[in-house]
Amino acid sequence: MGPNTYDYVIVGGGTAGCVLANRLSADASKRVLLVEAGGNDDYFWIHVPVGYLYTIGNPRTDWCFTTEPQPGLNGRSIGYARGKVIGGCSSINAMIYMRGQKSDYDHWASLGNRGWSWDDVLPVFRKTEDYVHGADSLHGAGGELRVEERRVSWEILDAWRDAAEECGIPKIAEFNRGDNFGNAYFQMNQKRGIRWSATKAFLRPVEHRPNLEVQLKAHTCGVRFDVSSDVPRATGVDLRLEDGSVRRVDARHVVLAAGSIGSPQLLQVSGVGPRALLESHGVQVVHESPGVGENLQDHLQIRIQYKVENVQTLNERVNSVVGKVAMGLEYLFFRTGPLTMPPSQLGAFARSHADQPSPNIEWHVQPLSLDKFGEPLHRFRAITPSVCNLRPASRGSVRIRAGDPLVPPAIDPNYLSADEDRRVAVDAVRFTRKIMAARALAKYRPSEFLPGPAVSSDDDIAHAAGDLGTTIFHPVGTCRMGHDPMAVVDDRLRVRGVRGLWVIDASVMPTITSGNTNAPTVMIAEKGAAFLLEEDRA
Description:
Elements lengths: L4 E7 L3 H10 L7 E4 L8 H4 L4 H4 L9 E2 L12 E2 L21 H9 L7 H11 E3 L13 E3 L7 H12 L15 E4 L4 E2 L2 E2 L2 H6 L8 E4 L3 E8 L6 E8 L5 E11 L2 H11 L2 E2 L1 H6 L6 E2 L5 E3 L3 E3 L2 E3 L6 H5 L2 H14 L11 E5 L10 E6 L15 E8 L6 E4 L10 E3 L6 H18 L10 E4 L7 H11 E3 L29 E3 L14 H20 L1
Parallel strand pairs: 1-2, 1-13, 2-10, 5-6, 13-26, 14-15
Antiparallel strand pairs: 3-4, 7-19, 8-9, 11-12, 12-13, 16-22, 17-21, 17-25, 18-21, 18-24, 19-20, 20-21, 22-23
Helix pairs in contact: 1-14, 5-14, 12-13
């Protein structure tokens, strides 16, 4: 086997890619290449949990994509962060460990995807987990992915929990047990106050293996195919290196793990996708697959904001020199305090309306307020109870703008295009206002300033949702699994219509999970690696 020939080439060194590199290189007889377009994770703010404020929107660590103008967001185009660094989004995300709900996976199985029910995936979640409270029937210990509790407390968040309970959302010890109905503090992928990314969890422990090569700052230009037979076969990839040279790599198996934006883009520029789209950009069609890049789903959060009194929030601590110094010293000596905070510490799940079969909205409650991430916190005391629709009916797309893989694709989430999504947005805002008016919060005198109490009719609230709505960076579904003509991969994550090519990342989800998507991506990669190894042994 030559120096540029591998058993497995993994395109994308994000969450899924790090898991795949770990598992596929465990067999010393197999050569594995992991390719990442970003650089190393040697930036200080990657590792300090609050550092997401400095990594999101930073071209050093983020692709800094933007969406197409969104009619549902009143014509706005919004930032669409994707990790551009080893570890991918796990190096810049909110660190929230959230599996989703039993009904999510049972729905996948009901669509004909064998092996993807809750009972099938729960053992996989447990295998990868190192749960701070030890193993039980629902949690694992000793796995690579550390899961811990928060390391800072806020009086206003404790009060919000009481208020939610007054409004029928009970306090629970944790999420991730199959039915997330209730309110609880989020558990996080941290280890003693430091971000525990997929790089630390899965790649660092095995990067010394002689059969594993990691190529950083290498942009994959496309997948090569042998088209001499009736069924095209993937034979390798071409990489554009940092110095501008091109490295040609051959592989028995090509695995795309570039995420819900990168994987469909790579398929399309390589000739797998909707015929009309490919031909319009001069791309030769290798295999017509109309579903590539379609079915984009994401969680849109509505950031409702309230001024409060008689209680401390992060706003005044950050806007004080003494507060900043105190926070820095607490983190330096104890690895506790506000610098360990993810964007949100407290969550809640409920039904927006009685006709919903299971919890369909989630709150991310923050003891702070700001115009948007990356901008300064407000100089007054405030909290932000953001709420999102967990099961959006709107569907968007990712489509190439050119045959050149270096040109960013058009990202169109199509937010709030479905009447049902606008109805859920209105119900979610009204539910949030009910919680904020509960007795438990009365002494803090909450005063809504976004969107403001004057926004009261259904039409006005729906319009305000378009003004306030923003992504929480959970794009999925653009290479969905299934067995119908629009499915891109089968339920073993093989690209339909070609051989030797796999997609293993969040893009394969047929429908979005109820909550943050990083933990499900780890599970998908774990199952995908097992599928690959089983096929190799067959």
